[in-house]
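User: I'm putting together notes for a lab meeting next week and I want to include a structural view of one of the chains we've been expressing. I don't have a solved structure, so I'd like a prediction I can at least talk through. The sequence is below, exactly as it appears in our construct file.
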Amino acid sequence: MWAALLQHGLELLAESEAHLAAPGQAKASEAPVKRTRRARTKASQALKPRKGKVPKSAIAEYGKRQCRDYLKANLIFMTRRRSTVPESVSQQILQQNQGRKACDRVVAKSNKKKKAEGTVFTEEDFQKFQREYFGS
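Assistant: Thanks for the context. Below is the predicted structure for the 136-residue chain, given as structure tokens.
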């Protein structure tokens, strides 16, 4: 009985390893899987190289998808491009791009300078106050 269980277990293990080793290949003992005409043509077209197409290098494709640093190119572009825009145009653009939030609003600067506040009392008023309250 133990020998039969062991033999059955080994057969199952051999079958599972065979499926893992060659999943795309059909076994000789099993009937081949039939494909539809559409599937056959699609598979054959995928294998054929297209006219004028060159297979892409995997390294080139990997390099394309890598993150690039455009800072240097952008700085060169910005320093070469020195277009002067009139102040009125730039102010109009900035004004149009302002949002409705309070943090986006520009605080209006008051051009009025505050005058130095002086006292309305004269020296005689201070002396009179001192005499009345302190008695000197």
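A couple of points you could mention at the meeting. Helices lie at 2-21, 37-47, 58-65, 71-80, 87-96, 123-134. The chain is about 50% helix and 0% strand.

User: Perfect, that's what I needed.
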